[in-house]
Amino acid sequence: MRIDPSELGAERIYRLMTGIVVPRPIAWVTSLSRGGVLNLAPFSAFTFVSQKPPMLAISVGRKGADYKDTAHNILDTEEYVIHIADTPLMQAVHDSSIEHPPEISEVAELGLETLDCERIKVPRLSVAPVAMECRFRQCLEFGDARSRLIVGEVVMFHIRDGLVNNGKVETDALDPIARIGGPRYARLGEIVTLGAVFQTPKSTD
């Protein structure tokens, strides 16, 4: 089968790519508007781009002709929190993708409790097993749709007790959820461990 992307609109290409690039981790992001409204939204175009300092990237698209509230909030306040959700939070993650007017808080709509962060003003979700306090560092725009790739530095990690062993996260205990095509999500399933291979150390520390 051959598919020429130049013959397709953005929506059809999006459906193809989100079915091919799978599974995708989900960044569950809280951000504050200038008026103090706490926004919550999931983003599955998400990865890390640096380990020292730790930096994460999310791609934020538009809703209609305007950018999503998360992009506005981050560029306005330069602070936000990226959470990793586990399986019990799957429905809440999905429901937080419902589009609301900017004056409506998804956190309040879903009845989620929050905690104060240590380094930034944006609250974090108390139910999430991982929360990463972030400060905005860079924004790049891509494509005809001008999707915004937002890069932020993690200034504090909050990780549920018992998830870190010998400096590494116990992924099976974390039980993160992933996004696949459409309104569908996935869990990790079987974890396969292969033999270690030599790699040059990333640093001397």
UniProtKB/TrEMBL annotation:
Query: What are the entry keywords?
Result: Flavoprotein, FMN
Protein name stated in the entry: Flavin reductase family protein
Q: Name one GO molecular function term.
A: oxidoreductase activity, acting on the CH-NH group of donors, NAD or NADP as acceptor
Domain Flavin reductase like: start-end pairs: 19-171
Coiled-coil residues? none
The cofactor(s) it depends on are: FMN
Q: Which family does it belong to?
A: Belongs to the flavoredoxin family.
Give one Pfam hit by family name: Flavin_Reduct
Classification via InterPro entries? Flavin_Rdtase-like_dom, Split_barrel_FMN-bd
